[in-house]
Design a protein that fits this description.
This protein is of the alpha+beta class and about 210 residues long. The chain has helices at about 20-30, 50-65, 75-80, 90-100, 120-125, 195-205; strands at about 5-10, 40-45, 85-90, 110-115, 130-150, 170-185, 210-214. It has one domain. Residues about 75-80 have low confidence and may be disordered.
């Protein structure tokens, strides 16, 4: 089945991102063919939502929009009260317009993409073993907790034995309001190649990076 990896790159806790900055980042991700072009602009309460969770909400929205009249309607509960799909599409111009049109009333907002664009050879070379990647760019009204899991250097004795009371993995907690994240299997636990270049350009050299494993 494999291990799921939640890799993220975030601005420090106190730094949010305006709609214009989120739009610029997402436009570059599309223009440089780093994400698949099918996008969904979302809003609501997104602080505890992974790219995988957003993908499920977007799929429920799609089913609700395309269900034949002979099928029972998708209910509000099935769509999920926490996530609203504001707009969907494939082109850069409508994406930028949809992001800047999200009401500025304190709600969380962001963009979901169904994957990295692995038809881009430079990106595929940087992520040779990745499968099932899903992508989100989020800007939150309040900080959320992002987990960073790393190997514990004190877990093993030099002779290979296990040190009593030590866990194999250390878990660090970070607070962030604005971040790029992927949910995937088999990929690097840090951004690589052309993706790293774009994220540094928009999130800054001081951006935090981490990965959690499930």
């Amino acid at each position: 089945m494999g291990v799921w990896e939640h890799m993220w790159v975030a601005r420090p806790e106190s730094l949010g991102m305006s709609r214009e900055r989120v739009a610029d980042l997402c436009a570059d991700l599309l223009a440089e063919r780093l994400v698949r072009p099918e996008w969904s602009v979302v809003s609501g309460r997104l602080g505890d939502t992974s790219p995988l969770g957003l993908g499920l909400a977007v799929e429920r929205h799609r089913r609700a929009q395309t269900a034949p009249e002979t099928e029972p309607p998708v209910t509000r509960r099935e769509l999920g009260e926490a996530v609203t799909v504001e707009a969907t599409g494939t082109a850069v111009g409508p994406l930028v317009a949809a992001i800047t049109a999200v009401p500025d009333d304190g709600r969380d907002f962001g963009v979901y993409f169904p994957g990295l664009d692995l038809d881009n050879r430079r990106l595929a070379n940087a992520y040779p073993g990745i499968s099932d990647p899903e992508v989100a760019v989020l800007s939150l009204a309040e900080p959320t907790e992002l987990l960073e899991m790393v190997d514990n250097p004190d877990f093993l004795h030099p002779d290979g034995g296990i040190r009593p009371g030590e866990e194999p993995t250390l878990v660090h907690q970070h607070q962030a309001r604005s971040f790029f994240s992927t949910y995937q299997k088999g990929g690097p636990d840090t951004p690589q190649g052309p993706l790293l270049d774009v994220l540094i350009r928009h999130l800054g050299a001081e951006a935090l990076t981490g990965c959690a494993f499930y």
